UniProtKB/TrEMBL annotation:
InterPro entries listed in its UniProt record: USP47_C
Pfam family, one: USP47_C
Organism per entry: Anopheles melas
Protein's UniProt name: Ubiquitin carboxyl-terminal hydrolase 47 C-terminal domain-containing protein
Residue ranges occupied by any Ubiquitin carboxyl-terminal hydrolase 47 C-terminal domain in the UniProt entry: 5-231
Residue stretches of biased makeup (Basic and acidic residues): 202-215
Sequence segments annotated as region (Disordered): 202-225
Length: 241
């Protein structure tokens, strides 16, 4: 995912200071786009405070979710210079962490009968959820047929479709957030229906899939994110501020 984040359009730079509320920072950024981008701001006109959020950029994926009610310096510690993404989220309320142990995960369904991966989805993994039940609920796959696999960060979004069905370590073990510390924010999981049969490929289809893997392995962006830089103003507030 490194290439996807590096190629994401830069929006703007802004300065924040200790005590600033994340929700207000986000609102100010959205309000500043017309002046900062001119005509280019039109494609972001659909964004508003209830369908996007700020997230810290990691090396390969998006990290910490900055919640609207958090304050810089009190709830959030930022380095002097930090890259932050403005991430578009369709259902912000259901994907916002509440508890300290809540984790936002990326998931993609593998369709062996079609030899393709489905779209990226985000789920909020909490101690109230069991992973196989949740994957069953969002996909319609019977719970007893759910299998999933964690994708290593070193191969994130670059797996050959020819390797996915039999080359990964699929499991069906029920899993809860409180008994699994393997997942961090931005972890990617593939899941599948264990009863779905693998498509038999002709030599021509196999050759075409190999070509497609080479073309698309590092060019797909999982979500709609907009890059911006936030510079933390750590200086004390002046008396007349």
């Amino acid at each position: 995912m490194t290439e996807e984040m590096d190629n994401t359009p830069f929006l703007c730079s802004t300065i924040v200071k200790n005590g600033d509320l994340v929700g207000q920072i986000k609102a100010d950024i959205l309000a500043s786009l017309p002046a900062a981008l001119g005509e280019g701001a039109k494609k972001y006109a659909h964004l508003h405070s209830n369908n996007c959020r700020l997230r810290r950029k990691g090396i390969k994926y998006l990290l910490t979710v900055y919640k609207d009610d958090e304050r810089i310096g009190t709830d959030i510690t930022l380095p002097t210079n930090v890259d932050v993404f403005l991430q578009e989220v369709d259902d912000l309320a259901s994907l916002t962490p509440i508890d300290i142990n809540d984790v936002v995960l990326l998931v993609r369904r593998w369709h062996p009968s079609e030899m393709k991966l489905g779209k990226f989805q985000e789920i909020l993994f909490t101690d109230k959820l069991e992973l196989t039940k949740h994957l069953s609920r969002i996909s319609g796959i019977p719970e007893e047929n759910i299998e999933y696999v964690k994708i290593p960060q070193t191969t994130l979004h670059r797996d050959s479709v020819l390797n996915i069905q039999n080359g990964l370590h699929w499991v069906s073990t029920p899993q809860h957030a409180d008994d699994c510390k393997l997942y961090c924010v931005g972890t990617l999981l593939y899941y599948r229906d264990s009863t779905e049969q693998l498509k038999e490929l002709t030599p021509e289809e196999r050759k075409e899939l190999t070509k497609k893997d080479n073309r698309t392995s590092s060019t797909y962006s999982p979500r709609k994110e907009r890059a911006l830089k936030i510079y933390l103003d750590a200086s004390p507030k002046k008396a007349d501020d």
